Each structure stands twice: as structure tokens, then as C-alpha cells.
Amino acid sequence: MRFWITKNSELPVREQLVRQVLLGILSEDLPSGHKLPSVRAVARRHQIHSNTVSAAYHDLLEQGWLELRRGSGLYVRPLQASGDGQLDQLLTGVLQAARRQNYEPEEVLHRLEHMLHPIPYERILIAEAEPAMHEILRAELAESLSVPLGAADLSILGASQAGRALVVALPTRAAKIRRQLPRGVPCITLRLRSVRASIEGQTKPSPDSVIAVVSRSAEIRLWARAMLISVGLDPDSLSEIDASSDGWRDRLVRNAFVVADVIAAGELPAACQPRVFRVIADSSLAELKQFCGQ
Predict the structure, then answer these.
(1) Which of 98, 174, 181, 182 could form an SS bridge with 189, CB 3.0 to 4.6 Å?
(2) Burial degree of 286 (CB within 10 A; 0-12, 13-18, 19+)
(3) Cβ atoms within 10 A of the Cβ of 59, count?
(4) What mean pLDDT do residues 125-139 have?
């Protein structure tokens, strides 16, 4: 996976690195056991200070996404086997397989409980504080699910208020959300669509094309840009457009190759035929359908 760094972004370079590595891990483009490039190599390639790269890697180590192998380097961390006995080994294997598919242990436990005592959830609450991202997630979920969708207000949400509701959150937020939820309220991680799934069936733009990445969400623009660069597109051909800014449609270049989120795609001029950049993986949508009895 190729990194893309801009020093003019509203996000610090350190956070850009952290998010792009996380994106690679969560979309399976950086698989378990993959070795990351050295601090020196990343710093030299992108002309940034090695301390910035080191700090980003340290954050990922602290969060448990990476592991340090002495004398070798940093690797995407696999779930470590633990426990003795035949059942422990069997469960460890299940957890390892689930981890490779980006399922957290809490989700495995919740799925087992649901299999044993299947009670369909009646609504889904989206735990996402950033308004633009919340709107995008809600639109994508609404396309696939017939249950009511709402916002998860963690300040008042308790087991009694949640009822038969399922809380969902992005991978970068899910661990924190779970710590804030009362016991008994499940939180499912929304897995991200991989680069391969995002571009599958799409015609690759010509080398001289101008590519516009359009979204109200700065995070979506970063993800889409990182994904496009990781599959070999020239960073200089990419243009980010904030769909919440005044006159943003006027910034679209005629005949540009447009990549837009599901909300912005519906607001483009009629002449534009965008490639819709979707956040949620199909496997995650299928899982939610099962939880909701669809």
C-alpha cells in the first residue's frame, strides 16, 4: 500500500499516516503479518521528519495494530493464540480467523449469543459524531436495510433506552464506543470496503485525466485519495472538493473523472456520471441484515 501525505491538509501529517495505515489494515490491503516500511524509508520518500513517522508508528503500536519484532521491524499484528486444551485451541482458531476478517472478539461473542438466542433487532443506532460522515453512513445503511435508523446519543443511552437496538460504528471509533456503552448494549464494527471492491468493474481513467474527489467529509476525501493512489493513480491528477463549501460544483472540471460519496453523488450536475465511493463493506451490510431478520 502506498502512502499519500500532504502538508497542506487540515489533518497533521502524523494523523494522516495513522489513518492510512489503519485504512490499509481494516480494508485488508495490509494483511496480518505484513511488514511496514521503515521509519527512515517513509520519512525520506515523503520528505517529512523521521520523528513524525516514528510517532505515528508508536501510536499504532500502543493501540495494538502493530507489533515490533526485534531486529526485523514493524508488522501488522495478528491475534495471538492463548489458552490450553482442545476447546481453547478451537476457540483461539476461531478468533484468529475472525481477526483476519476484521472482526473484534466482542463481535464474535455477540454473534454466538445471537446464534443461540436469535432475537431480531428492531432499529440501528449510528455512533458517529462527525455530521457529514453520519449522513453518509446513514444513507448507505438505508439503501440495504428496512429497519429504522437513528443516532446513538452515548450521553443518555442505557440498556433500557437501547431496547432491541443495535449500535454500529466505524473501526476507528468502535473500541472507544464500546467502552462508553452500558453492559448489554452491543456495538458492531462497520467493516470498510476494500480498494479492490471500491474499483471493481470501474474503468480506469486515462493518465491525463483530472480526478475530482467530492465529499462533505474530510475523512472520506482522505480515504478515497489514499485508495486511488494505492492502486497507482498519480497524486498530481487528484483534486479534492469539499461538497459543503459554497460554489463547489463550479470547481468541477469539464469531463473530469469524478469520485463521490453516496450523498454528494446525488447532488452533482446532471452531466456528471460519478463513480460512487462507498464506505461500508458488503459483508458488513449482509451481517446487519441477519441481525435485523431481513
Answers:
(1) 174
(2) exposed
(3) 17
(4) 93
